[in-house]
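To illustrate the input format used throughout this study, we show a single complete record. The first block contains the structure-token representation of the backbone; no residue identities are included at this stage. The design step must infer an amino acid for every position from geometry alone.
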């Protein structure tokens, strides 16, 4: 069921990129799609291990508790996901700056109108 929701999120973003004519809506659709991809990666990474604990050593009353090997989730997918979130945010900010530049020259953000005025 969770996979279906994630797949629906990815599809909503994909069709939003294709079908929406407004550039801001295309950027939002791309963000929705990347969120779905990241959620799918989190889902896959969480099902590999049996336990879903963070790799933090528990301390109770100033004493480090015993930790069994393999009882923690792999931190590498978490680092990759954080990197993907940061890169996605920076790409989204860059695209919004581009849309702001286009908005100065053209009164509309519709991609078809902008293409119509810029074709030679």
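Output of the design step:
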């Amino acid at each position: 069921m969770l996979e279906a929701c994630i797949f629906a999120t990815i599809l909503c973003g994909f069709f939003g990129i294709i079908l929406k004519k407004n550039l801001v809506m295309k950027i939002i659709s791309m963000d929705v799609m990347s969120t779905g991809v990241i959620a799918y990666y989190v889902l896959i990474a969480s099902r590999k291990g049996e336990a879903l604990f963070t790799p933090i050593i528990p301390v109770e009353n100033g004493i480090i508790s015993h930790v069994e090997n393999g009882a923690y989730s792999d931190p590498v997918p978490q680092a990759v996901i954080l990197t993907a979130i940061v890169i996605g945010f920076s790409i989204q900010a860059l695209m919004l700056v581009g849309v702001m530049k286009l908005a100065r020259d053209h009164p509309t953000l519709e991609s078809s109108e902008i293409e119509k005025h810029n074709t030679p």
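Structural context for interpreting the output: The domain at 1-50+71-117 is CATH 1.10.287.3510 (Helix Hairpins). The chain is about 70% helix and 5% strand.
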